[in-house]
């Protein structure tokens, strides 16, 4: 990787290990790759339940935080300009700060940047309106919260959208500028012994090699449309179509999902693996799957769809959704409308057309399988431009 200039980079986020989700994986992978030719510090919430992994190539600073009730997440405490943590962060002498959330720790990063008179850039990873509506059934309140959130982004020097569809989301929220598009990537690479690994997965989960496998990877939460998937599969089973479904992940709605699987009498059709941290095993599961089911309207640009693509497993998305922005139907993935029966019909159509499925599988790998090395290099160039712009405006 070309090393034009070594930077001191501060990455601020309101969530991090031991919690694992797509955004945490983005930050970890981006920070690892940036640290190959920069000094990187990640500022995240403190939690007493986690022993820091000091093998990481970047520094981690944890600030005081509070648990969010009924969730696995934490939120940083407000850090005033008189706090010890704030003064400590000023001494880091960052060249640029990159915030990945608009909440307390993201705001802290913005304050530090303003005080140091350095650029502060931001990335929006989430459709915040979906998350807020899940908690608050009042559109007026939702709009007020979004207005406060976008105020943070408008206070930054520039922002990153993870795909072109998120540029429109920025605008809809009230963003005044035009964000730069930088896509997410993955650390996964194609398996060296694919057939051998597939056989291991078949044995591990007692899968018939002739039965098609459907797959979801991510947080087990209703906002990801995991029950929409289940309802579609119930209809698929009623059509006497043989399949195995694998849900990989954990989340707040795991118990509810297990209960509905039992209610639908589908315990023999569906496997819940829990969280999988072994990257080779995860790649092997992707490779074994025939189709990746991801009907989320909430996600902006999910890493799991890129991970699936690297392993030649195309996804079935909802047309018009933000996370389907990079998908062309029947070319590098599949799309259909948000309707259980039509989603079920699309699954059958795909699995019954092996020639098309093979072609789309290969195209998914070629067009969607971006790696973090290239993403980090692009992000570094973006940082340099923002630093130069800041200097010229001083």
Q: Descriptors for this entry?
A:
394 residues, alpha/beta, Rossmann fold, 2 domains, seven-stranded parallel sheet, six-stranded parallel sheet, globular
Give start-end ranges of low-pLDDT stretches.
none
Which CATH architecture of the largest domain would you pick? 3-Layer(aba) Sandwich
- Percent helix among the residues? 40-55%
How far apart the termini lie comes to 30 Å
The domain tally reads 2
Specify the number of helices.
14
Taken as a percent bin, the fraction of beta residues is 15-25%
Number of strands: 15
In the CATH hierarchy, the third-tier topology of the largest domain is known as: Rossmann fold
CATH superfamily of the largest domain: Glycogen Phosphorylase B
Query: Quick one: CATH class of the largest domain?
Result: Alpha Beta
The general outline is: globular
Sheet/helix structural class: alpha/beta
The overall pLDDT, averaged over residues, is 92
Q: Tell me the strand order in the biggest sheet.
A: 3-2-1-6-7-8-9
Largest sheet: 7 strands, parallel
What string, H for helix and E for strand, traces the elements in order?
A: EHEEEEHEHEHHEHEHEHEHEHEHEEHHH
Folded structure, characterized:
- By secondary structure, the protein is α/β, with parallel strands linked by helices.
- It has two domains: 200 residues, 3-Layer(aba) Sandwich (Rossmann fold), CATH 3.40.50.2000; 175 residues, Rossmann fold (3-Layer(aba) Sandwich), CATH 3.40.50.2000.
- It is 43% helix and 16% strand.
- It has 14 helices and 15 strands.
- The protein has a seven-stranded parallel beta sheet with strand order 3-2-1-6-7-8-9, with helices on both faces. A six-stranded parallel beta sheet has the order 12-11-10-13-14-15, with helices on both faces. The chain has a two-stranded antiparallel ribbon with strand order 4-5.
- A hairpin with a 6-residue loop joins β4 and β5.
- It is globular, with a radius of gyration of 22 Å.
- The model has no long low-confidence stretch (mean pLDDT 92).
